[in-house]
Amino acid sequence: MNFPKVGSNIQIHSYKHNGLIHRIWEETIVLKGTSKVVIGGNDRILVKESDGRNWRTREPAICYFDSEQWFNTIGMIRSDGIYYYCNLGSPFTWDSEALKYIDYDLDIKVFPDMTFKLLDEDEYDLHRKIMNYPPAVDDILKRSVDELISWIHQRKGPFAPQFVENWYERFLQYR
What we know:
Strand order of the largest sheet: 1-2-3-6-7-8-10
Radius of gyration: 15 Å
Distance between the termini: 27 Å
Structural class: alpha+beta
Number of helices: 3
Number of strands: 11
CATH topology: FomD barrel-like fold
Strand content: 35-45%
Protein backbone atom coordinates (compact mmCIF):
# COMPACT_ATOMS: atom_id res chain seq x y z
CA MET A 1 0.00 0.00 0.00
CA ASN A 2 1.28 3.47 -0.84
CA PHE A 3 1.22 6.13 1.85
CA PRO A 4 1.10 9.87 1.38
CA LYS A 5 4.49 11.27 0.39
CA VAL A 6 6.19 13.89 2.51
CA GLY A 7 5.51 17.32 1.02
CA SER A 8 2.37 16.21 -0.81
CA ASN A 9 -0.92 17.99 -0.36
CA ILE A 10 -3.80 15.75 0.74
CA GLN A 11 -7.42 16.01 1.78
CA ILE A 12 -8.74 14.65 5.06
CA HIS A 13 -12.23 13.12 5.01
CA SER A 14 -14.20 12.26 8.12
CA TYR A 15 -17.26 10.06 7.90
CA LYS A 16 -19.98 9.06 10.31
CA HIS A 17 -20.62 5.46 11.35
CA ASN A 18 -23.42 5.21 8.75
CA GLY A 19 -20.87 5.81 5.96
CA LEU A 20 -21.95 9.34 5.10
CA ILE A 21 -19.36 12.08 4.70
CA HIS A 22 -19.13 14.38 7.73
CA ARG A 23 -16.38 16.90 6.92
CA ILE A 24 -13.60 17.50 4.36
CA TRP A 25 -10.40 19.45 5.06
CA GLU A 26 -9.25 20.61 1.62
CA GLU A 27 -5.48 20.93 2.05
CA THR A 28 -2.99 19.41 4.45
CA ILE A 29 0.71 19.10 3.71
CA VAL A 30 2.12 15.71 4.70
CA LEU A 31 5.10 16.08 7.03
CA LYS A 32 5.35 12.36 7.85
CA GLY A 33 3.50 9.54 6.11
CA THR A 34 3.93 5.89 7.11
CA SER A 35 1.67 2.89 7.66
CA LYS A 36 1.56 3.79 11.37
CA VAL A 37 1.49 7.60 11.55
CA VAL A 38 0.54 10.53 9.38
CA ILE A 39 1.49 14.01 10.56
CA GLY A 40 0.30 16.98 8.54
CA GLY A 41 0.29 20.73 8.68
CA ASN A 42 -2.15 23.32 7.42
CA ASP A 43 -3.04 26.97 7.85
CA ARG A 44 -6.31 28.78 7.17
CA ILE A 45 -7.67 26.00 4.98
CA LEU A 46 -11.15 25.49 3.62
CA VAL A 47 -13.33 22.99 5.50
CA LYS A 48 -16.52 21.65 3.89
CA GLU A 49 -19.34 20.42 6.11
CA SER A 50 -21.80 17.74 5.03
CA ASP A 51 -24.66 20.25 5.32
CA GLY A 52 -23.07 22.44 2.61
CA ARG A 53 -21.51 25.04 4.91
CA ASN A 54 -17.90 26.03 4.26
CA TRP A 55 -15.50 27.74 6.63
CA ARG A 56 -11.77 28.40 7.04
CA THR A 57 -9.58 27.39 9.92
CA ARG A 58 -8.24 30.39 11.84
CA GLU A 59 -4.68 29.39 12.59
CA PRO A 60 -1.82 27.07 11.68
CA ALA A 61 -2.33 23.52 12.88
CA ILE A 62 -0.44 20.25 13.13
CA CYS A 63 -2.56 17.10 12.71
CA TYR A 64 -1.60 13.71 14.12
CA PHE A 65 -3.17 10.42 12.96
CA ASP A 66 -2.15 7.03 14.35
CA SER A 67 -3.17 3.75 12.69
CA GLU A 68 -3.48 2.01 16.06
CA GLN A 69 -5.38 4.65 18.05
CA TRP A 70 -9.08 5.47 17.98
CA PHE A 71 -8.38 9.20 18.14
CA ASN A 72 -6.59 11.91 16.21
CA THR A 73 -5.36 15.32 17.29
CA ILE A 74 -5.15 18.80 15.85
CA GLY A 75 -2.64 21.09 17.58
CA MET A 76 -3.73 24.66 16.85
CA ILE A 77 -1.06 27.33 17.19
CA ARG A 78 -2.52 30.49 18.70
CA SER A 79 -0.94 33.62 20.13
CA ASP A 80 -1.62 32.49 23.71
CA GLY A 81 -0.40 28.91 23.28
CA ILE A 82 -1.22 25.58 21.69
CA TYR A 83 -4.76 24.27 21.89
CA TYR A 84 -5.60 20.73 20.89
CA TYR A 85 -8.82 19.45 19.44
CA CYS A 86 -8.96 15.67 19.71
CA ASN A 87 -11.48 13.62 17.74
CA LEU A 88 -12.48 10.19 18.96
CA GLY A 89 -12.67 8.17 15.79
CA SER A 90 -11.50 5.09 13.98
CA PRO A 91 -7.84 4.63 13.08
CA PHE A 92 -7.07 6.29 9.74
CA THR A 93 -7.00 4.67 6.36
CA TRP A 94 -5.33 6.05 3.27
CA ASP A 95 -6.25 5.75 -0.37
CA SER A 96 -5.30 7.84 -3.38
CA GLU A 97 -8.26 10.13 -2.70
CA ALA A 98 -7.68 11.12 0.95
CA LEU A 99 -6.80 10.20 4.50
CA LYS A 100 -10.06 8.88 5.97
CA TYR A 101 -11.53 8.01 9.34
CA ILE A 102 -14.90 7.60 11.06
CA ASP A 103 -15.75 10.40 13.51
CA TYR A 104 -17.51 9.11 16.62
CA ASP A 105 -18.69 12.47 17.96
CA LEU A 106 -16.76 12.57 21.25
CA ASP A 107 -14.06 15.23 21.37
CA ILE A 108 -11.57 16.46 23.92
CA LYS A 109 -10.39 20.06 23.90
CA VAL A 110 -6.99 20.57 25.53
CA PHE A 111 -5.88 24.01 26.67
CA PRO A 112 -2.30 25.38 26.69
CA ASP A 113 -1.94 24.51 30.41
CA MET A 114 -2.88 20.89 29.49
CA THR A 115 -6.23 21.02 31.27
CA PHE A 116 -8.95 19.50 29.13
CA LYS A 117 -12.67 19.12 28.64
CA LEU A 118 -14.64 16.18 27.20
CA LEU A 119 -17.15 17.47 24.65
CA ASP A 120 -20.24 16.25 22.79
CA GLU A 121 -21.27 13.39 25.09
CA ASP A 122 -24.95 14.08 24.28
CA GLU A 123 -24.25 13.94 20.54
CA TYR A 124 -22.37 10.67 21.03
CA ASP A 125 -25.27 9.12 22.98
CA LEU A 126 -27.77 10.23 20.33
CA HIS A 127 -25.73 8.95 17.37
CA ARG A 128 -24.87 5.72 19.21
CA LYS A 129 -28.59 4.96 19.36
CA ILE A 130 -29.56 6.29 15.90
CA MET A 131 -26.68 4.61 14.04
CA ASN A 132 -26.59 1.50 16.24
CA TYR A 133 -22.94 1.61 17.25
CA PRO A 134 -21.99 -1.98 18.09
CA PRO A 135 -21.18 -2.63 21.78
CA ALA A 136 -17.58 -3.45 20.78
CA VAL A 137 -17.17 0.03 19.21
CA ASP A 138 -18.71 1.64 22.29
CA ASP A 139 -16.21 -0.23 24.50
CA ILE A 140 -13.26 0.71 22.29
CA LEU A 141 -14.26 4.38 22.33
CA LYS A 142 -14.62 4.44 26.12
CA ARG A 143 -11.17 2.89 26.49
CA SER A 144 -9.83 5.35 23.90
CA VAL A 145 -11.08 8.32 25.92
CA ASP A 146 -9.09 6.97 28.88
CA GLU A 147 -6.05 6.34 26.66
CA LEU A 148 -6.22 9.85 25.22
CA ILE A 149 -6.47 11.38 28.70
CA SER A 150 -3.46 9.29 29.73
CA TRP A 151 -1.49 10.63 26.75
CA ILE A 152 -2.44 14.19 27.76
CA HIS A 153 -1.31 13.63 31.38
CA GLN A 154 1.93 11.96 30.25
CA ARG A 155 2.51 14.52 27.48
CA LYS A 156 2.91 11.63 25.10
CA GLY A 157 2.87 11.68 21.29
CA PRO A 158 1.42 14.92 19.93
CA PHE A 159 1.20 16.35 23.48
CA ALA A 160 4.96 16.04 24.06
CA PRO A 161 6.77 19.31 24.70
CA GLN A 162 7.87 20.91 21.42
CA PHE A 163 6.03 18.33 19.26
CA VAL A 164 3.77 20.87 17.57
CA GLU A 165 6.47 23.54 17.38
CA ASN A 166 8.99 21.19 15.76
CA TRP A 167 6.52 19.90 13.16
CA TYR A 168 5.34 23.46 12.49
CA GLU A 169 8.94 24.42 11.64
CA ARG A 170 8.98 21.60 9.07
CA PHE A 171 5.59 22.71 7.75
CA LEU A 172 6.97 26.21 7.09
CA GLN A 173 9.63 24.70 4.80
CA TYR A 174 6.89 23.41 2.47
CA ARG A 175 4.77 26.56 2.29
